[in-house]
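We read letters as residues; the fold follows as tokens. Both lines appear below.
***
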Amino acid sequence: MAATADYVCIFVRATGDRLRAAERLVLALPLILGEDLLDCGVRYQAQAKLLGVTVRLGGEAPSDAARDRLVFWTARAGGRAVAVDRLEADDRSRLETYLAKPTHALSGVAPEELFEITGAFFTELGAAPDRRRSAGERPQLVMDVGGPGWDGVRWDPGERRLFVAAPLAPPAGDAIPLFLRVPGQQKPVQVRATVADVRPSAAAAPGEPAGYLLQLEDPPPALVQALDAAAPAPVHDARAAPRFQVNAPVKVSAPAAAKPARHLIEYATDQELAADFVQNLSQGGAFVRTPSPPAVGSEVELELRLPNGAELNATAIVAFTNANGMGVRFQLAPDAQAILSNAIAHISARARRALVVDDDELVCRMIADALRDRGFEVMTAGTAAEGLSILSEELLALDLLVTDVVMPGMTGEELVQLIRNTGGEVELAIVGVTGSLEQGIDKRLEAVGADAVLDKSLGPDLIAQAADAVLERKRLSAQG
């Protein structure tokens, strides 16, 4: 008797870049799942900005490999795939509430019809009508050699193997379209890779974190040289999960009035709260920047937004404190652990991410496309206010901001000043672009925190090249 299994891929705050990533995943489902895919549907709740992709697997028995592929590639796209019958009661109730009355819905779409039917659907949800779509494109694993999320990568030069630490993995034996961005090269290097081995979370141990091993086939010498140079120090020896360098606002509060032993960190202003952030997110630990940490051993509640848009509320114990803040260890329920695991799989060994802000839609799209050609994941915003909204959610995984200088409402100069002075963000590379490079504008922008100011007459390709170089200089300066 044929068996079926129902999964739902959940994308929260599914607008803009997240919506685009979800659409790419949907289009790739026939290639990811092959004959195991029977049909799928898409349900969207506009007010909650929640997208649910229902996937029905079948055949003689849905394979473990198909399930692992779905879970892994959904996480890389910023979502979370779970078996419907394994959803926690609260999660199932919340999902049913949001999607019981969707504003937009498709049901029972056959694999061969996905490309044609979903085009108009995602356009209606807000995707750009002139976006790039492909019916036969497999998901790609894009990494920045020595860049963001490289903390959990190991390189074996003798065997030509890359180990990527992550709690989720594609199945062993899968061929992976791998693109590695090498510093100094204009475009990412494509190399054939096969998943040689997988270490699941249950098998992780100190010095042996969960993750997957990629066998590279005939990597070019320049890539091998870059990997040799970027090989990380053996930092995993003392723990079973590496830490990932991240930045994002975090709220710290007392968990419950009924437990007065727990502590509350208070902020004088909203700006002070927004300036706090979490560093070194891992499976169970983080460093929280705060001017007034409670005593070691105190119990606090953390509220933070993860890079895939999900919210994590976790009780934590203060493990140590210093002048910059406190180190905490999470106490996570199984559902919260699953949410964090998806977020870590999303940010591990990732491509660099950029935000382009410009009120000229054509210029914005052209600069964004030029950055994508250089291996960036790119988000766009038409106003400074929209850019700030994205920044508040995406700071965990954002490396570069390219902003127009002259815009209605808030100018680029005001945007940069707000980010640097009010938000306290110093690690983000910021490049201003303007069609009128008036005398002194570059000095004014740099005075408020821009790393460079460029003339739009350079064209999108040269702007992307220069912005890439600015980010690389900033990264190398931080290391030195």
